[in-house]
Design a protein that fits this description.
Layout: H1 17-32, H2 38-50, H3 54-61, H4 66-69, E1 80-87, E2 90-93, E3 98-108, E4 111-115, E5 120-121, E6 125-133, E7 136-141, E8 146-154, E9 157-158, E10 172-180, E11 183-188
Parallel strand pairs: 1-3, 2-4, 3-5, 3-6, 4-7, 6-10, 7-11, 8-10, 9-11
Length: 193
C-alpha cells in the first residue's frame, strides 16, 4: 500500500494480499507496544485478512497513532487541506478531515474553527500557522497530542491553554502565529464535547 489510487471511491477498491499483510504487521507491532491486547489483535487480524476494501482495512487501524499508521496503512482519505481563509466571513474544519503537515489559517475581520480531534494527520509532525486581524479563531486539539503554542498577541490574545506534552505515538502539533486586534484560543477537549 505504498501508493493508493487517488481517484474518487478508492475506499471501495479491493486491497492486495500484500496490503492485508502490512496491516497485520502493524497490528502485531501495536500489540507489542501494549496498544492492543491479544483478544483485540485476534479480532482485528481476522477483520484485516477478511477485508474486501481499503475502507475495511482503515477501520481496523483507525485508532492507532500516526507514526504507526504511516508504516503501512492507506493514506488519509479525501483531499488534503492546507489553507483556511476567512475574509469578512468564517470557516470551520471539523469532524473527519485531512490536515497537511504545514497548514495555514487566516482570519481577516472574520472567524474560524479548527477542530483537530478527528482530523487525519499526514505525518507525525504538523505545523499550523495562524494569522488573525480583527477576528477570532478557536483551535481544538486531541487530548493525547503533544502541543507547542508559540503565538503572539498584539493588542489581542494568543492563548496557550493547549500547550503541553502528549502520549507516546500521538501527533505532535506546533501552533505559531499572530493575533492583532483579535484572539486565538487553543484548548484540549475530549471527543464529543
Amino acid at each position: 500500500m505504498n501508493e493508493l489510487p487517488r481517484r474518487a471511491g478508492w475506499e471501495g477498491i479491493r486491497p492486495s494480499d500484500r496490503d492485508r499483510e502490512r496491516v497485520a504487521e502493524l497490528l502485531r507491532e501495536a500489540t507489542a507496544e501494549g496498544r492492543l491486547d491479544f483478544a483485540e489483535l485476534d479480532e482485528r487480524l481476522a477483520a484485516a485478512y477478511d477485508a474486501k476494501s481499503y475502507a475495511a482495512l482503515d477501520v481496523v487501524t483507525r485508532d492507532l497513532p500516526v507514526p504507526a499508521r504511516a508504516a503501512g496503512v492507506p493514506a488519509p482519505r479525501g483531499p488534503v487541506s492546507r489553507l483556511a481563509l476567512a475574509v469578512f466571513s468564517g470557516f470551520a474544519r471539523k469532524g473527519v478531515w485531512t490536515v497537511a503537515r504545514d497548514f495555514t489559517a487566516v482570519c481577516l475581520w472574520g472567524g474560524g474553527v479548527l477542530d483537530l480531534r478527528e482530523a487525519r494527520f499526514t505525518g507525525p509532525d504538523t505545523r499550523i500557522r495562524v494569522f488573525v486581524l480583527w477576528g477570532g479563531m478557536k483551535i481544538v486539539v486531541p487530548e493525547d497530542a503533544e502541543v507547542y503554542v508559540e503565538g503572539l498577541g498584539l493588542m489581542g490574545l494568543f492563548g496557550r491553554r493547549a500547550n503541553g506534552p502528549g502520549t507516546p505515538g500521538a501527533p505532535r502539533i506546533t501552533i505559531r502565529g499572530l493575533a492583532m486586534w483579535g484572539h486565538v484560543a487553543t484548548k484540549r477537549l475530549p471527543l464529543g464535547k
